[in-house]
Amino acid sequence: MLLIIEKIILIDSIKEVNLSNYAFLRERMVRFRFHDSLKPLYNELQTEIGFIDSSLFLRTPADDTWQAYRKGGLARAYSFLDLSYRNEKGKRRNKDENKMDLLILQGLLGFVGYYLPRLPYSIYKVLKEN
């Protein structure tokens, strides 16, 4: 992907941009992925910089995230996003790591849940005594 971006940057000619067409195609790409209205632009880019694998446009990161959500729910989707962010896309977190994250979250929520309601009184008490 970086090589493709580099080739695009190194193109000598500057293309005129039709903003309304760009907005239309961008919205279509987000909703319907790669489709027929993008093929002329794809072919133009192919002739300009050489071979571009069309699979880069057919499967998006959003598709992978949705698949992770469908397989294992929200926790699996968050785990997938976390591992993708850390460039460990092929790996899966084991259940012990997920349990540890849950224990930390429960401990933090318990601490906040215990002390947050008492915070105004504690502040009042400290201010009154000093």
Write the layout of secondary structure elements.
Layout (H helix, E strand, L loop, with lengths): L1 H8 L9 H14 L6 H11 L5 H4 L2 H25 L9 H21 L3 H11 L1
Which features does this protein show?
single chain, mainly alpha, elongated, 130 residues
Please give the number of β-strands. 0
Shape: elongated
Strand content: under 5%
Instruction: Specify the number of helices.
Output: 7
Structural class by secondary-structure content: mainly alpha
Q: How much helix, percentage-wise, in residues? A: over 70%
Radius of gyration: 25 Å
Report how far the terminal alpha carbons are from each other. Answer: 62 Å
Characterize the largest beta sheet: strand count, sense, and whether it forms a barrel.
Answer: none
Taking pLDDT < 50 over at least 5 consecutive residues as the criterion, the unreliable ranges are: none
Describe the structure.
- With 130 residues, the chain is mainly α.
- The chain is built from seven helices and no strands.
- The chain has helices spanning 2-9, 19-32, 39-49, 55-58, 61-85, 95-115, 119-129.
- It is elongated, with a radius of gyration of 25 Å.
